[in-house]
Amino acid sequence: MEKTNSYKQIIKATGIFGGVQVFNILLTIIRSKVVAVLLGTAGVGLMGMFSATTSLIASISNLGIGFSAVRTVSEAAATDNRSLISRTIITLRRWAVLTGLGGALITLVLAPQLSAWTFGNDTYTWAFVWLSATLFFQALTSGELALLQGMRRLQHLAKANVMGSVCGLLVSLPLYYWLGVEGIVPALIATAAITLLLAWLFSRNIPYQREPYTYRESLRNGVDMVKLGSVVMITGFAASGIMYLIRTYIGRTGGLEEVGLYAAAWAILNGYVDMIFTAMGTDYFPRLSAVHSDNKVMNRLVNEQAEIALLILGPILILMLPTLPLIIRILLTKEFLPVKDLIQWALIGMLFKAIAWSVAFTMLAKGDRKMFFISELSSNLFTLGATLLCYHYLGLEGIGIAFLLSYTLYTVLVLFIARNKYQFRLQAPLLRIFLVQLACTTAAFLVAWKLEPVYNYTLTPLVFLLAGAYSLRELNQRIQLSTLFEKIKSKFTG
Fold first, then answer.
1. Is the pLDDT of residue 125 over 80?
2. 325-354 per-residue burial string, b: 16 or more CB within 10 A, e: under 16
């Protein structure tokens, strides 16, 4: 019964936040279209430069607290100690204020330099002065959302995300229509403020005691949270640096056109396929953090999470393989069709990522900063070397092959670390599911890669049906799909 409930929780969280991700993607598409009409290409570019610059500052000044705080809060919540939970909430909020003020101050002081570095002149100095407020709002919002996630208030977290996106769009579009390009800065500030307000409205219902607790104590007790967040921040910067080097190399070797193709491929992989991991991770990380002291329970949760990830991901990847040309034409244009082979190779790598992603969270849940840093740095360096080498000899398709090789090696690495440090073991059901989905996905890949297009629409559907039937059978054994469907039906029929 405990395992069944655990599987159901994974499916529930994935459904909730998968829906949030899809909704946000649709809003992004609508926003992009409307903004393009109201502001033109120059306005869109200006808004993008403002957002990119402030996001970079925020990623530094926030010290990764928006991620690491989830572990701290969930660990405290698992104790049911009201005093500890209260102190944790106060600590998080005080650190959020501190980092928010730091980000705002950096932006305020460096406003002239930011304008010069970003645009080559001081024309937008006052724009960055005003945008410093968004750094403060975003830091507070990040803290409140981390609180909701750590306390596993999933419904409230989902509502805060969706309502924040909708209200931000409804407020910003009239400003763009009324003020044109001059409305970009007010719109960014208003969106950040509204998002914070909504996050606070949902998190304020979390009960805690206002007990005597000095600022010095809260700052000192938040040091471990900041240390873990800083490591996550540094590894994120390293990954961004690797991506920058790869794009630079592609630009110098193949030209800007191939850089554009590479960026488009990554947009599809990160924006649409990675959406599954984002949805799952929202509840997975706090659940894992809450039991990090019990290796046996952690082992079970990791295997369960990886099983569900593979059962959901496998059929989706198989369906994408033959339809990639259509997907690319819908999301982009036919000029981007050369990235098809790159994406196809990378889709196989996503199966390895499902396991590596599930296992790598053990290091974060344990707060093992050293091993997390070593594993991520090693993976990034291998990715850089493999990508440059494969691109040099195989072109764009080689980047997809490098992705597959990198995640294969990364999977072996994190499994080795988790086995030796936390006594983690891959259980037989997970291994069986992985091999079946890998075999089906590889078969669909070979059909799409080597055979004539007509076989894509004859043989691949058979592989998809096989993988889909297998996934449904395995899911039914874990969560009784018929019961789940009956509950869903009853909600709609009343």
1. yes
2. eeebeeebeeebebbbbbbbbbbbbbbbbb
